[in-house]
Amino acid sequence: MPTKAAVPELTHPLAPLTSNEIASARQVLADAGLLPETARVVYLGLEEPPKEAFSGPDARASVDRVVRALVHDVAPRVGPRDVLVSVTAKSVLAEHRLDPAVDGQLPVLDEEFPLVEQILAGDERWLAALAARGLNVADVRVAPLSAGVFEYPEETGRRLLRGLAFVQQHPKDHAWAHPVDGLVAYVDVLNSSVDRVIDLGPVPVPAESGNFDDPAVTGPPRTTQKPIEITQPEGPSFTLDGNLLRWENWSLRIGFDAREGLVLHQIAFRDGDRDRPIIHRASISEMVVPYADPSPVRSWQNYFDTGEYLIGRYANALELGCDCVGDITYLDAVIADEFGHPRVLPNAICLHEEDYGILWKHTDLWAGSSETRRQRRMVISFFTTIGNYDYGFYWYLYLDGTIQCEVKATGVVFTAAYPGPHHETINPYASQLAPGLGAPYHQHLFNARLDMVVDGPANRVEEVEVERVPIGPDNPRGNAFTPRRTPLRTESEAQRLADNRKGRVWHITNPNSRNRLGDPVGYVLLPEGNPELLAADGSSIQRRATFA
After folding, report:
1. Which of 265, 275, 284, 460 is the most buried (most CB within 10 A)?
2. Residues labelled as active-site residues
3. With a threshold of 0.85, does the pTM exceed it?
């Protein structure tokens, strides 16, 4: 049976916001006149105290609890605000009006999703484009998509979404299988107006069903699998005290943010009688999904799912048996809804441990010994749904001191019409999925925020890569190679790319802390080696997603 962790009391400055704290912050905003009927709380989250405000995992709630609220007003010409609220003192600490032309737009609101479809349902150009395709507006769903930043001066500072259409043949139909191609609309959601409708002419709407939950489409379920049961008769090996997790020699604090989702604080490893700090804060702070189709209908497609849609806000309620298997402990997450009220996300976080095969093994012919050690890992995860995509974020802690983050991209791909073999040119920017149906090429690029404190804050970074040694007097057979270390002293120097050809990694070390061999203690950052952002230099997405 799964375990439901108790709602933690406030015992630490980095404890997640409680429902009472969110309600209190909302009341402060309302009392200050910052929440009229037209106001929407786009984001509300803990303003984390600096590392210097406390020390060690046993620090208590001795600092002011401050939240940051981003407030949007659905009434035109009011403008957004960035507000800091002290929950402890029940007062507004700071209020700053934002200029969308300079600061950018606040994230997309839930209520703006159906609003785009409603606005377009009254636009004659949109209705004419659907009629030319033989489509009824009642059967058309519109995906409300972040607009990006492009060369249209009339769009500067305006709250725009771009809409692509899909046919939903009945209420249970998965519309992603039926894209309406050659058509896009630019919608001003603040003024409820349509800037433009781009119609390149009718393209056949793919007809094949994509209803993966319909047995008539998917076929009979698999019957060949025998049961696998994962049990821990004595319970899990980890303990949870509020948001403080302890497992084997690991300790850390689990947080959750409406924008980033999982946030891990004060990750430490126990060595003898002391907890040695490794990471103060770890999260996936942004992700971008740039698309490769240069057509006028799709050339603008690129989404910052974290910053523009808030991945934490859409955390799934996880279920035992499919989402999580084994001896599971669930944690609820609490965020603010768009009116500032506390909203509980049930079973948002899954905690469990799992066997992970062989950690180490050796059979020694001289000594006649054979030894094996099993690997086990602690798993901290959540799943979120952003439109067509579902993302699972998994943080792993291993017995040998390894920390790993894995993102599982699933769901369904964003679709487009795909010209069949009767066309002269096959679309070079998409893959064919089904007759007439394609998926534009795209990337998923993630930004990991890692505030390292390896044995303390005095950390430095070195780039380490393998270097061939040319044939010469010291290398007569040409077999030699050796590591080359390059200190990265500034942020500009540290803007580096992965390079698997050279085995490039980065060492984060503490020169003030030495191991028993006299070398600085450290961690190695191992990149996955995926392609960098492939959009052209000078493109809008290159300028906005410099982390990729």
Report:
1. 265
2. 305, 389
3. yes
